Write a sequence for this structure.
């Protein structure tokens, strides 16, 4: 029996996936475990392997965003009725997201659906695009080209308007002669050959508009609209929930990094890898968390979970936002182990190749903007953590030591705390322990 393939949940925060590319086409034979497609989640672009052997009978969604558990393809025996399998699954053939590739194949030998006689410029706008059955790609193309979807007939499943319908409308829009009267003659009459009556030329057909997606220029308004990526959608949702659900408060301390700088220099003379200040911060935070487990806790709604393992998330800037790979058991790892792990995961994060499990299970998070010249900032708590540490850069500034003003190497850090879990005193005790460790960093080696 044909097997219906649905959009899988590839991460704990995933609500929809973006189909980036199909590596098989309708009619191709596939085997279990063979690469079928690439799916972009909120955290990474991942390979999706075939869960069954057989022939790819149907591709329900060519590309774009698809909700979890929606039908994306059908695999079965050659000639098998995939529509019956989809019906038994309880979903539509195209799942309302985009045209299927076999529908494209059927339409290849048929004329493209033409728009209704009334032009888009003459027809009133529809009340809402949401009442019109059209794929997201078709809606986007129609919007950019200035075409009213209400004036199109859909050739997709159940009359849905799909890409080829909009393309046909755009082609007709560019080839149909203008019906408007010719422009008025200029003040100076045109020169006419003697004894030959002047011929009034018909107004030329308008050229097809040049479409620049998501851009607009009208008068003094110049801007570019960029579609929201899956990652940015999740960042907006989760951090919005965190900021406006968890009552944040902030604690800041300034740390003398002179001894940490000396220790780092000594370590790098013998270390197989180059230890960074961020490695020292991660290790010191893990050691302080072991002393103050309240900070290593999570708000669970009806209870507070104090985590035994210390798993430190490290915020990494990528093209579309932030990813947070997790260093597990950070308190039990050496500085060189932390360095190697963070560097390797950060490299894959920037290529969107991290696996979901590598970004889950964090109990505390560190966000370091010191390398960008930021002296001090506050960060939004990364759920399910109760706290996040914002780390600024090391700044040369005068400080008072033993009653004398001397040059100093100072670093400010700010702890954002969820007041449902952490009180001011608990946060202050953790920060002081963290500060003491970095000011006497030999303690993190024992």
């Amino acid at each position: 029996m044909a097997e219906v393939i649905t959009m899988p949940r590839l991460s704990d925060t995933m609500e929809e996936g973006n189909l980036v590319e199909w590596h098989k086409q309708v009619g191709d034979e596939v085997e279990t475990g063979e690469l079928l497609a690439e799916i972009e989640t909120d955290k990474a672009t991942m390979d999706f392997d075939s869960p069954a052997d057989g022939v790819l009978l149907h591709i329900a969604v060519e590309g774009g965003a698809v909700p979890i558990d929606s039908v994306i393809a059908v695999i079965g025996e050659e000639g098998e009725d995939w529509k019956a399998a989809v019906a038994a699954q309880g979903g539509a053939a195209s799942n309302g997201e985009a045209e299927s590739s076999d529908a494209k194949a059927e339409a290849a030998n048929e004329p493209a659906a033409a728009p209704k006689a009334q032009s888009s410029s003459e027809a009133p706008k529809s009340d809402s695009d949401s009442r019109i059955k059209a794929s997201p790609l078709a809606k986007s193309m129609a919007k950019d080209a200035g075409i009213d979807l209400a004036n199109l007939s859909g050739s997709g499943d159940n009359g849905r308007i799909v890409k080829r319908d909009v393309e046909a409308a755009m082609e007709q829009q560019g080839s149909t002669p203008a019906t408007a009267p010719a422009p008025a003659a200029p003040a100076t009459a045109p020169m006419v050959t003697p004894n030959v009556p002047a011929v009034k030329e018909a107004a030329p057909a308008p050229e097809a508009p040049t479409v620049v997606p998501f851009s607009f220029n009208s008068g003094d308004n110049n801007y570019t609209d960029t579609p929201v990526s899956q990652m940015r959608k999740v960042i907006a949702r989760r951090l919005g929930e965190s900021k406006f659900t968890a009552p944040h408060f902030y604690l800041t301390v300034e740390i003398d990094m002179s001894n940490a700088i000396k220790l780092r220099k000594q370590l790098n003379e013998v270390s197989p890898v180059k230890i960074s200040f961020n490695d020292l911060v991660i290790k010191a935070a893990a050691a302080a968390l072991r002393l103050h487990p309240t900070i290593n806790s999570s708000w669970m709604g009806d209870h507070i979970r104090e985590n035994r393992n210390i798993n430190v998330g490290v915020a990494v800037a990528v093209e579309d936002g932030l990813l947070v790979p997790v260093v597990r058991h950070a308190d039990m790892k050496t500085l060189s182990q932390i360095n190697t792990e963070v560097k390797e995961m950060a490299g894959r994060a920037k290529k969107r190749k991290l696996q979901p499990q590598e970004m889950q299970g964090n109990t505390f998070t560190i966000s370091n903007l010191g390398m960008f010249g930021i002296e001090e900032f506050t960060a939004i708590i990364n759920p399910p953590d109760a706290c996040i540490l914002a780390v600024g850069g090391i700044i040369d500034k005068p400080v008072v030591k033993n009653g004398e003003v001397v040059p100093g190497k100072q670093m400010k850090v700010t702890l954002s705390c969820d007041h449902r879990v952490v009180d001011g005193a608990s946060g202050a005790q953790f920060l002081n322990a963290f500060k003491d460790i970095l000011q006497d960093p030999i303690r993190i080696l024992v």
